[in-house]
UniProtKB/TrEMBL annotation:
It comes from Campylobacter hyointestinalis subsp. hyointestinalis. Residues 2-109 form the Response regulatory domain. One of its GO terms (biological process) is regulation of DNA-templated transcription. Pfam families: Response_reg. This is Response regulator receiver domain-containing protein. It comes from the Bacteria.
Length: 296
């Protein structure tokens, strides 16, 4: 990893660079804020807030995608609070052990990596679940606990994913067929949403035990068959004529209609027509034939 040390105490900067090199970091030094505004990309910026008479905020803005750790002599709004509000990640107070600095760097290194992975996974899941078109629903009117009845599990998955995103709450998903279901529920202490799929696939006695364990929890149950569960609101998701199971055998026209309806918001017309092996003109004609309106 490349590290830029912005520190006007040259001996301290050199000492830090030498010690960080022992941990595998490649370090460069800037003794003033102006030199730190170079165009080079750095993974970590170690920024001293003791640059007398110098404005270090442009350094924070310039390297906002990097891990920025403030090197401070004392704690105040000028040395910690305001710089962190401006985009710095953390601070370490002088004097400090190099091991403590490395620990902070590694912590934020992991955080940034998981942040990127989380964003990527969310985009992938969003793209996938958007292909399962849901009936219009006012999330404000949804009441928990909730039972979702849907012939295909993916529609329930789609609803829970977008609902949890709307209320800004994480959720734990677990199958009722999971061997560790009861153990997981007994040890579950989180206040986040609990989503249990395939609830209708277990025996009646198993359902009763699950219901007892989730009695005081914010829970959503998903089933393929209609059930009546006391205390649970019910939502039935009816798949329209454009939805089909993977086991269905369709005519060519039915398949093309499904693909156009399900993926026209995912791919541009050029890509969609290419994947279907037809021209854009033919795609337009088929929309007209199937009475499929394209969103603008």
């Amino acid at each position: 990893m490349k590290v830029l040390i912005v520190e006007n105490e040259i001996y301290l900067a050199q000492s830090m660079a030498s010690k960080l090199a022992d941990f595998g970091y490649s370090c460069e030094i800037a003794t003033n804020a102006k030199d730190a505004l170079r165009d080079d990309k750095f993974d970590v910026i170690l920024l001293s807030t003791g640059l007398i008479g110098q404005d270090f905020y442009p350094v924070i803005k310039k390297h906002q995608s990097s891990i920025i750790i403030l090197l401070i002599s004392y704690i105040s709004s000028d040395t910690v609070s305001n710089p962190i509000k401006a985009g710095a990640d953390d601070y370490i107070q002088k004097p400090f052990m190099i091991e403590e600095l490395v620990r902070k760097i590694k912590l934020f290194e992991s955080y940034k990596r998981y942040e990127i992975l989380n964003t990527t996974y969310e985009q992938v899941i969003t793209s996938y679940l958007k292909s399962y078109k849901l009936p219009k629903c006012d999330f404000k009117k949804v009441k928990i606990p909730l039972l979702i009845v849907a012939k295909r599990k993916q529609y329930a998955d789609s609803f829970v994913f977008f609902y949890a995103k709307w209320i800004n709450l994480v959720y734990k998903q677990i199958s009722a067929l999971d061997e560790e279901l009861i153990t997981s529920l007994k040890s579950y202490r989180s206040h986040s949403l609990l989503y249990i799929t395939e609830f209708d696939k277990i025996e009646e006695s198993g359902r009763e035990e699950v219901l007892k364990l989730i009695k005081d929890k914010s829970a959503i149950l998903a089933t393929e068959t209609d059930l009546d569960i006391s205390g649970f609101d019910k939502m039935v998701i009816n798949i329209d004529s454009n939805g089909f199971d993977g086991s269905d055998i369709l005519t060519i026209d039915e398949y093309v209609k499904h693909i156009i309806f399900g993926y026209q918001d995912t791919f541009p017309d050029t890509e969609l027509s290419k994947r279907l092996g037809i021209s854009r003109k033919s795609l337009w004609e088929k929309r007209k034939k199937y009475d499929i309106a394209k969103k603008k």
